[in-house]
Automatic annotation (TrEMBL):
Protein known as: Ig-like domain-containing protein
Single biological process term from Gene Ontology: homophilic cell adhesion via plasma membrane adhesion molecules
Domain Ig-like: 6-97
PROSITE patterns associated with the record: IG_LIKE
InterPro entries linked: Ig-like_dom (IPR007110), Ig-like_dom_sf (IPR036179), Ig-like_fold (IPR013783), Ig_sub2 (IPR003598)
One GO cellular component, as annotated: synapse
Membrane-spanning parts: none
């Protein structure tokens, strides 16, 4: 098998979350190929998100899930950072807004 650095399969898209939505979560999608398998981190407004800091956050594969989204805490610009031994790639910014 050939080793190579991370390559995006899917980058996150802008999301407008309707505040009256019954859907109580937001999913920011990120998918990367690489060998060895890359690890994922997420940034909000340029700062890495500590997934342990808020029980509402979870990471499923590369997708960042926010349960019970909160405009004051969660609106902003998100980026996905994927890393393996060959390097890191940073996604475009995806903006999460509430409407």
């Amino acid at each position: 098998s050939v080793d190579y650095g991370p390559v995006f399969v899917q980058e996150p898209d802008d999301i407008i979350f309707p505040t009256d939505s019954d859907e109580k979560k937001v999913a920011l999608n990120c998918e990367v190929r690489g060998n060895p398998v890359p690890s994922y981190r997420w940034l909000r407004n340029g700062t890495e998100i500590d997934l342990e800091s808020d029980y509402r956050y979870s990471l499923i594969d590369g997708t960042f899930i926010i349960n019970n989204p909160n405009e004051a805490k969660d609106s902003g610009h998100y980026q996905c950072l994927a890393t393996n031994t060959f390097g890191s790639i940073l996604s475009r910014e995806a903006t999460l807004q509430f409407a």
